[in-house]
């Protein structure tokens, strides 16, 4: 079941606090604000006008907002040492990082409900719903020939693969096959390679010497005027004899001597063909493209050999995708990768995998919960109420009864989430 409302960690925490009565609301909201002279060790809070001295002793203060020096306290938690009712002043066991002003806002939590504990319970609830809350995303790669294994870019957060499709039709245009020799700059030797190629008769092999400068055109393929304004991406095959970073190489499209597009390569593994797909930055200006260029990147990668093949432009969204039968692919559990079976009838094509990743744990107040927040709120509420060691007798019995009701609500929301269908799950680490 899709999430009907998005909530941040701060919103979820406030709902838990108000639902359990653990969050002070003296100021009429979930947050309090400093109202008078304060220091790193003591805050004056006018809203705390009730109760005797030490009314709030042992509680937890969580700084949530503020400007100037007050912002340095945001996210920190301090325990209350004393409360003086005559001047509504809180003192703390440990000093805050900075002396706040009256912009400082904070939450005040009961002793049994430390915000650290609340945050841990929130992430436990999310983890318990890992598969039900698994978030779908898409990965693109290219297959064909000897390439049969594809690692998942999400790494350990990828927990399953739901579907694989290949691009069967699309709107595209080949700019250059790179079957013919590219022109090259000084300290660069351009050749054609008929043995190591991905398409057509040959690939372009560009040997770059250590003396070659960074951010400089190494080799150029020229062709007739081409209008590519209706296209969105540049695609080609690339390989390097050394591992590169995203700052090692660039692709450039030119209109005569005018440069129209300059785009960084992705990182390349040594001696492995990679299908590169780069979004055009300003396609609306690309009405008369005449050159494709390989450039060195912003950082000097030193001596290297680069192969390129089959430079095309494509229009994103024009594709037809054909679902690949599940018997043609599986998962490599150890390497967290998609593996195409030996008899897989996968053409030379761009492949799209629908992958499921674990929902993100919440580490900041602004982070949005990716599983049903109502499930999380009720699950944490149940855990928190059961942890109330400060209660005894009828109070504890009432808390346990309310915990049971919250747990029942949590289970209801958990069941309503359903589970994604057809996923091949990766083993968790």
What would you say this structure looks like, in words?
Among the domains are: 86 residues; 69 residues, no CATH class; 143 residues, Sandwich (Jelly Rolls). Helix content is 15%, strand content 35%. It has a 6-stranded antiparallel beta sheet, with no helix packed on it. Strands 10, 12, 13, 15, 18 and 20 form a 6-stranded antiparallel beta sheet that branches. Strands 7, 9, 21, 24 and 25 form a 5-stranded antiparallel beta sheet that branches. Helix 2 crosses helix 3. The radius of gyration is 30 Å and the shape is elongated. The two termini are 26 Å apart.
Pick out its properties.
429 residues, alpha+beta, Jelly Rolls, six-stranded antiparallel beta sheet
Helix content: 10-25%
Give the overall pLDDT as a whole number. Answer: 91
Q: Which sheet architecture does the biggest sheet show?
A: 6 strands, antiparallel
Q: What distance separates the N and C termini?
A: 26 Å
Please give the count of helices.
Answer: 4
The name of the CATH topology of the domain at 172-314 is: Jelly Rolls
| CATH architectural name of the domain at 172-314 | Sandwich
Instruction: Outline the low-pLDDT stretches.
Output: none
Strand order of the largest sheet: 1-6-3-4-5-2
Proportion of residues in extended strands: 35-45%
